[in-house]
Write a structure and sequence with these properties.
The protein is α+β, with helices and mostly antiparallel strands. Helix content is about 20%, strand content about 35%. The protein has 2 helices and 13 strands. The longest helix has 28 residues, at about 10-40. The N and C termini lie far apart (about 85 Å).
Length: about 200
């Protein structure tokens, strides 16, 4: 027993043990960080839900018999587009997860004539939500400053634009997985069934 005690007191053995422990701890920390990166707890989805062309320049009615105008201005190639933003988990996305306070920017690539409507609902049952994160339309951008995005909140932006939109984006969120799809979203029932939101 005295021999074992003296052996364990050997500085070389203690250094070796400490090295092994440090290696194990480093491996565990790396695994946790990797898992957290691969499977973030928060997910934010963006979806182009509806895209309706109101009039095409090639309809043969460019002689002025039929026009689409907004606020007195004639539109040549107007589109109505719905963009949905969905917090897909029950976890809130707080404003401090916007990296360096930078905003979310959705660039449609064509002039935005009007943000017609912004609607908010609970993803689980479709009930209206009072919390209303706002977006501001610019020349071709829809900009959302850092704000709280509650869990399971779906926000729908309905816009009138001039020209066929092509969505580009800047989403400076930390620890949030962002998904973009060109298909309508589906609302979950509490039973697990879905309802197609492509109404109409």
């Amino acid at each position: 027993m005295v021999y074992l005690a003296e052996g364990w007191a050997d500085p070389a053995i203690l250094v070796a043990i400490a090295s092994v422990i440090a290696t194990v701890i480093t491996g565990i920390v790396a695994a946790v960080v990797t898992l957290r990166t691969a499977l973030p707890k928060r997910r934010l989805g963006f979806y182009v839900n509806k895209l309706a062309q109101l009039m095409s320049p090639s309809t043969g009615l460019s002689d002025g018999r039929l026009v689409v105008a907004y606020d007195g201005n004639v539109l040549v190639n107007p589109y109505i587009v719905e963009i949905q933003m969905l917090n897909q988990t029950g976890k809130d996305i707080p404003a401090n997860l916007f990296d360096s306070g930078a905003p979310i920017v959705l660039d449609l690539g064509v002039p935005i004539i009007e943000l017609i409507e912004t609607a908010w609902e609970d993803w689980n049952d479709g009930t209206p939500v009072r919390h209303t994160p706002q977006a501001t339309p610019g020349q071709s951008n829809l900009t959302m400053e850092p704000t709280l995005i509650p869990g399971h909140l779906m926000t729908t932006f309905t816009l009138l634009v001039e020209g066929e939109p092509r969505l580009d984006y800047t989403i400076p969120l930390i620890d949030v997985k962002v998904e973009f799809k060109d298909r309508p979203t589906r609302r979950r029932r509490s039973s697990g069934d879905g309802i197609d939101l492509n109404r109409g």
